[in-house]
Amino acid sequence: MRIHELSPKEGSTHRSRRVGRGIAAGQGASCGFGMRGQKSRSGTGTRAGFEGGQMPLYRRVPKLKHFPLVNQKHYTIVNVSQLNVISPNSSVTLESLMELGIITTNDGPLKVLGDGELTIALEVTAAAFTKTAQAKIEQAGGNCQSA
C-alpha cells in the first residue's frame, strides 16, 4: 500500500456545500452567512479571543508572580519541636493541642511541620505531615496517623 492509494472509509466523508449557485440550490446569494456585517464578509471575521472591543480575558488577568491561589487549603500548623512539652506515649490531635495551649486558634485541619527536634514518642493524628516531620516522629519511636 502506498500513500497515494489511501482514501477515507466509505460513507465517512460528505461532499462540500456548493454555495452561491442560485436560490434553488438552498445556499444562494448570501451563502448562509446572513445579510450584512463583519461575519458575512470574506476572510476570517474576528480573531480568536476578540470580545467586541472589550478588554479581552487574556489581557484582563494578571500575569505577574505572587498572586493568591484560588482554592488554597488552610491548615493549623505545628512544628515537631513544639510537641516536646507533651507527656510521652500520649495521643496528639488538634483538640488536645488546643487544650494544652500549644495552638490558640483553629485555622483548619492540623498539619505537622518538621522544624526542630522531637525527643519523645507520640501518637500523632493530623490531616497532613511533611516528610521530615513524619521521619522525626517515627525516629523518636512514635507513629503518624492521617485524620
From TrEMBL:
<feature type="compositionally biased region" description="Gly residues">
    <location>
        <begin position="23"/>
        <end position="35"/>
    </location>
</feature>
<dbReference type="GO" id="GO:0006412">
    <property type="term" value="P:translation"/>
</dbReference>
<comment type="function">
    <text>Binds to the 23S rRNA.</text>
</comment>
<dbReference type="GO" id="GO:0022625">
    <property type="term" value="C:cytosolic large ribosomal subunit"/>
</dbReference>
<keyword id="KW-0699">rRNA-binding</keyword>
<dbReference type="InterPro" id="IPR005749">
    <property type="entry name" value="Ribosomal_uL15_bac-type"/>
</dbReference>
<comment type="similarity">
    <text>Belongs to the universal ribosomal protein uL15 family.</text>
</comment>
<dbReference type="GO" id="GO:0003735">
    <property type="term" value="F:structural constituent of ribosome"/>
</dbReference>
<dbReference type="InterPro" id="IPR021131">
    <property type="entry name" value="Ribosomal_uL15/eL18"/>
</dbReference>
<feature type="domain" description="Large ribosomal subunit protein uL15/eL18">
    <location>
        <begin position="78"/>
        <end position="144"/>
    </location>
</feature>
<dbReference type="InterPro" id="IPR001196">
    <property type="entry name" value="Ribosomal_uL15_CS"/>
</dbReference>
<keyword id="KW-0689">Ribosomal protein</keyword>
<feature type="region of interest" description="Disordered">
    <location>
        <begin position="1"/>
        <end position="52"/>
    </location>
</feature>
<dbReference type="GO" id="GO:0019843">
    <property type="term" value="F:rRNA binding"/>
</dbReference>
<dbReference type="InterPro" id="IPR030878">
    <property type="entry name" value="Ribosomal_uL15"/>
</dbReference>
<protein>
    <recommendedName>
        <fullName>Large ribosomal subunit protein uL15</fullName>
    </recommendedName>
</protein>
<dbReference type="Pfam" id="PF00828">
    <property type="entry name" value="Ribosomal_L27A"/>
</dbReference>
<feature type="compositionally biased region" description="Basic and acidic residues">
    <location>
        <begin position="1"/>
        <end position="13"/>
    </location>
</feature>
<comment type="subunit">
    <text>Part of the 50S ribosomal subunit.</text>
</comment>
<keyword id="KW-0694">RNA-binding</keyword>
<dbReference type="InterPro" id="IPR036227">
    <property type="entry name" value="Ribosomal_uL15/eL18_sf"/>
</dbReference>
<keyword id="KW-0687">Ribonucleoprotein</keyword>
